[in-house]
Amino acid sequence: MDCGRSPPSPGLSLRIPGFAFAGVPVLGAFALELRGGETTALLGPSGSGKSTLLRMVAGLLPAPAGARIAAADGGPVAGRLAWMAQQDLLLPWLDLLGNVMLGARLRGEAPDRARALRLIEAVGLAGRERARPAELSGGMRQRAALARTLMEDRPFVLMDEPFSAVDAPTRHRLQGLAARLLAGRTVLLVTHDPLEAMRLAHRVLVLRGSPAVPVEVPVPAAAPPREAHDVAVLTAQGALLESLAEATAEAA
Amino acid sequence: MSAVAEAAAPRPARRAAPRPGRAAARALLAGAGLVACWWLFVWATDQPHFILPSPARVAAALAERWDIILGHAWITLQEILLGLALGAGLGVAAALLLMAFPPARRWLLPVLLASQAVPVFAIAPLLTLWMGFGMASKIAMATIIIFFPVASAFYDGLRRAEPGWLDLAATMGASRRAILLRIRLPAALPALASGLRVAAAVAPIGAVVGEWVGASAGLGYLMLHANGRSQTDLMFAALFVLAAMALALWFALDAALRAVLPWQPDRISEGETTP
């Protein structure tokens, strides 16, 4: 099934001179290179600025003066990214197919229906194209959101706790599916789940300190997606959990 | 892809719909009970018929003066429907204007809110003075009374679109126009439906008040006329027809709105909007 994209995704470089919210410094000054075609997971205590950083990259939040968010190939970032949030954000008045083709519809372009149908099949929802979101389970809705994200066919994919609203077994399957379908794209994944980070990410960063800056933590040698029962993954998950606990203590 | 066929426990699509037959039977029974009480009261207190006629007298008046009542009802119905169409159309247009153009918001919104401080009934004589005793002044009255609930409900709906949808649309490169027409507008339709239900309920008030102030036809005129001649039974008969018309209008509109917004009943069953 051809759902991937051919040209390699460029890297993304972020330089943030610090960011304050309502006068309170949230993010410190740092520079970060997201390698092309890799998944970078970003974790941190609540309020550490994970989502703020992600929204800044997405252009949903104005970047502070002096900030630089640039694609490694010199092209623009805006218009080349896809966004997936914690809520599925499916529009209740559109059916599954309409939701998957939303981007083209909003831009006034002719949607590629055949490709949308292929993606719906790839996320295991074939036969439900005409179903409204209310007729789908939470896991199915999140898979629909994944298909909509892939439909945008963008080199950069920004995910904000995309699987946190579903139960653990469903999340486990969704992670495997996402890893397979997102392979080759430059993904920035904000998550609360250490296991999710260790399964899916090439690099794992924890926002630590106050104001927070990203600190890299070691990941298992094997390339993602990694098995949840892999001893190396579990060990790394334990270490990450401790690092997160320390970060939370620092922030408190 | 059977590997990802996780428990697809679809939520119970819709709560068991209330059986319309049973609801209608209940309404009928309650109505019969009220009529019985009315009858009992008239019989027990021996009211003169020009103060409170018995149900039988009202029914007789309805049967005898059927053609007259129907003629006046037709006038009132036209006033209500035209007022509803005009008021709803203007309300929808005003809400879209407020949403699309921030300057309109700054200048028009305070005026709209202030206009609500003027009791609509107080300007009814003015409308009659300017537009005459015909249907125009009544349609204007109904339009004015309907405009505000529709405009405010729809504008609220447009403003309160789920922020996540707006973020998503922004990352997809949607224009402001596309966000308004393809996200905010459909998202606001359930709110608009609530506004229209209120409008359908108040529309007859506008038309009848207009007729009371000065008219040569319509159920309001007929009631005032009958009242002046102590034909209380005829007045009640006209009132009965007016109430039946208002109810029929409300239920027809409600059914139509449910049919065009099939995703909305779910929201009601989840308690997100008041039914």
Brief write-up:
The complex is a heterodimer of chains A (about 250) and B (about 280). Chain A is α/β, with parallel strands linked by helices and about 250 residues long. In chain A, about 35% of the residues lie in helices and about 20% in strands.
What does this structure look like?
Chain A has two domains: about 1-80 and about 155-250, P-loop containing nucleotide triphosphate hydrolases (Rossmann fold), CATH 3.40.50; about 90-155, no CATH class. In chain A, about 35% of the residues lie in helices and about 20% in strands. Chain A contains eight helices and eleven strands. In chain A, the strands form three sheets. Chain A has a six-stranded mixed sheet, sandwiched between helices. A three-stranded antiparallel sheet of chain A has the order 4-1-6, with no helix packed on it. A two-stranded antiparallel sheet of chain A has the order 2-3. In chain A, a hairpin with a 2-residue loop joins strand 2 (about 20) and strand 3 (about 25). Chain B has one domain: MetI-like fold, CATH 1.10.3720.10. Chain B contains eleven helices and no strands. Chain B has helices at about 20-45, 55-65, 65-100, 100-115, 125-130, 135-160, 165-170, 175-215, 220-230, 230-260, 265-270. In chain B, helix 3 (about 65-100) packs antiparallel against helix 8, helix 5 (about 125-130) packs across helix 6 and helix 9 runs antiparallel to helix 10. The chains are: A alpha/beta (about 250), B mainly alpha (about 280). The interface of A and B includes residues 83 and 92 of A. Chain A: GO terms for molecular function: ATP binding. Chain A: Keywords: ATP-binding, Nucleotide-binding, Transport. Chain A: Belongs to the ABC transporter superfamily. Chain A: It comes from Caldovatus aquaticus.
Give the CATH H-level superfamily of chain B.
Answer: MetI-like
Q: Which spans of chain A have pLDDT < 50 for at least 5 consecutive residues? A: 1-5
Number of strands of chain A: 11
Tally of individual domains of chain B? 1
Distinct helical segment count of chain B: 11
Helix content of chain B: over 70%
Biggest sheet statistics of chain B? none
Q: Largest interface by residue count?
A: A-B, 42 and 36 residues
Structural class of chain B: mainly alpha
Strand portion of chain A: 15-25%
- Tell me the CATH topology of chain B: MetI-like fold
Beta content of chain B comes to under 5%
CATH fold annotation of the largest domain in chain A = Rossmann fold
Averaged pLDDT of chain A: 90
- 3D shape of chain B: globular
Whole-number average pLDDT of chain B? 86
Question: What would you report as the Rg of chain A, rounded to the nearest angstrom?
Answer: 18 Å
Question: CATH class of chain B, anyone?
Answer: Mainly Alpha
Assign an overall shape of chain A: globular
Protein name (chain B): ABC transporter permease
Organism (chain B): Caldovatus aquaticus
Transmembrane segments (chain B): 23-44, 80-101, 108-133, 139-158, 179-196, 202-222, 234-253
Keywords (chain B): Cell membrane, Membrane, Transmembrane, Transmembrane helix, Transport
